[in-house]
Amino acid sequence: MSTPLVEVRDVNFAYDSRPILKGINMSFPKGKLIAIMGLSGCGKTTLLRHIGGVLKPTGGYVKVDGQVIHELDREGLYALRRKMGMLFQFGALFTDMTVFDNVAFQMREHTDLPEEIIRDLVMMKLHAVGLYGTQDLMPGELSGGMARRVALARTIALDPMLIMYDEPFAGLDPISLTVVGELIRKLNDALGATSIVVTHDVQESLKIVDYVYFVANGAIIAEGTADDIRASGEAFVKQFVHGEMDGPIPFHYPGNDFNTDLGVHA
Amino acid sequence: MAIVRSLRGIGNRVVNAVWRTGYGARFFLMTLFYSGMSFRRFRLTVREMFFSGVMSLIIILVAGMFVGMVLGLQGYETLKRYGSESALGSLVALSLVRELGPVLAALLFASRAGSAMTAEIGLMKATEQIDAMELMAVNPIARVVAPRFWAGVISMPLLAALFSAMGVFGGYVVGVVLIGVDEGSFWSQMQSAVDFQHDVLNGVIKSFVFGVAVTVIALFEGYDAPPTAEGVSGATTRTVVQSSLVILMLDFILTAFMFRGD
């Protein structure tokens, strides 16, 4: 693999006394599209927030572009974030702005480009995600899939070197799902960026990614290419990838014995 | 055990209250520190002045008019007993400029604009818009909070002035037009009784202080709201309740300093 753009080394994190990440090690080489998969609540988004510098690890470090992110001051962190883009689970579009203003937001905040050039750039970004013509709509007028694509156009507004996707496939219809999946792959290759996709959508993400980390209970339990994951003999991965009812992931939430609570004795 | 539990509960509440006060003070200082953008890109502040100030105009003007009309009616009935109906103008104007204008305008501003600010920022937080801004290397305190803060602080004295002006007009309508108090004495008494520095300026200072208090409470509650429907609705309620109590408390303190011994 080529030089890593993002390195995660021995990262531990806990909310109060509840451990979320336990000694995570990952490497994200430049130009690759890598997925972090696992069940809801397994720590995937928490990991993404460490890479974005929103959370500080209780142990270990995350290095982005050679800089340990939790050691940066606000200026340094903001300078690094200007080279990153993040697509949130439901887009997180600014609801008081039009589609145009959403995509133009970072250009206006971080550059001195004249409005005419910003206009051309916004139109190019919207065209890239197939939504040229929606520039005057408000986020409330968009469908879920369209909102996700507008958010994607906003994410790539400044051609970031690192793009992070938090559950980009959640709640999408099958057509939007394929469109968004294809866009993620194409944009990564066209921009020469590095992409990290946090998802639990196995089938769609395995079609587009170069490498997969599989996280369960805050630790990596499997990693490899899409084919490696599909062929994995690890019971946890097997149950997850094939959507099986039976396996190490229990159906019932751990609690008191149901029969005992009902007063029924076998 | 029950005593220990209740003591622990009281202790937790006190610690939480102290923690939130400190966090709120830090939030206020950060808002002041990151206020540069609100003036460099003044259109951001003007936009928020439209939402918090201009959109509050109707309620402020209508309420001001009715308060002035009630003052005119009640004032006339009271002054008539002492044969001082001609002092109606000064009674209406002084009541409005010194007290009712700043206080009632601030209470209305808190319930109309303050609650809207809290709900908007709370929802921005719940829908990850604040996080998105932070991850785009845009400071949400500078971009979202500070322009709203300055918009509220600038709008509040203007709204209070309009409230008082409409109140005086309402008092005039009831006192002069409907009841028949002499128009000349109504205006001349008002002119001689109201001192610009002592009455008007102190009223403006009061409304400025109320503006700071209401907007800081509204913005802090929104920014600190748990990102859930209950969290945002609870924060909105807290904004109205806390703002109202703080306005009345500050009014007492300011009045004691400004008008003591008149």
UniProtKB/TrEMBL annotation, chain A:
CDD domains: ABC_Org_Solvent_Resistant (cd03261). Signal peptide: none annotated. PROSITE patterns: ABC_TRANSPORTER_1, ABC_TRANSPORTER_2. Pfam families: ABC_tran. Keywords: ATP-binding, Nucleotide-binding, Transport. Transmembrane segments: none annotated. InterPro entries: AAA+_ATPase, ABC_transporter-like_ATP-bd, ABC_transporter-like_CS, P-loop_NTPase. SUPFAM superfamilies: P-loop containing nucleoside triphosphate hydrolases. GO terms for molecular function: ATP binding; ATP hydrolysis activity. SMART domains: AAA (SM00382). Residues 6-242 form the ABC transporter domain. PANTHER family: INTERMEMBRANE PHOSPHOLIPID TRANSPORT SYSTEM ATP-BINDING PROTEIN MLAF, PROTEIN TRIGALACTOSYLDIACYLGLYCEROL 3, CHLOROPLASTIC. This is Putative ABC transporter ATP-binding protein. It comes from mine drainage metagenome.
TrEMBL record, chain B:
Part of the ABC transporter complex MlaFEDB, which is involved in a phospholipid transport pathway that maintains lipid asymmetry in the outer membrane by retrograde trafficking of phospholipids from the outer membrane to the inner membrane. Probably responsible for the translocation of the substrate across the membrane. The complex is composed of two ATP-binding proteins (MlaF), two transmembrane proteins (MlaE), two cytoplasmic solute-binding proteins (MlaB) and six periplasmic solute-binding proteins (MlaD). NCBIfam families: MlaE family lipid ABC transporter permease subunit (TIGR00056), perm_MlaE_1 (NF033619). It is found in: Cell inner membrane. Keywords: Cell inner membrane, Cell membrane, Membrane, Transmembrane, Transmembrane helix, Transport. The chain crosses the membrane at residues 49-71, 91-111, 156-179, 200-220, 240-259. GO terms for molecular function: phospholipid transporter activity. Belongs to the MlaE permease family. The keyword Secreted does not apply. GO terms for cellular component: ATP-binding cassette (ABC) transporter complex. InterPro entries: ABC_MlaE_roteobac, MlaE_Permease, Permease_MalE. The keyword Metal-binding does not apply. This is Intermembrane phospholipid transport system permease protein MlaE. It is a multi-pass membrane protein. It comes from mine drainage metagenome.
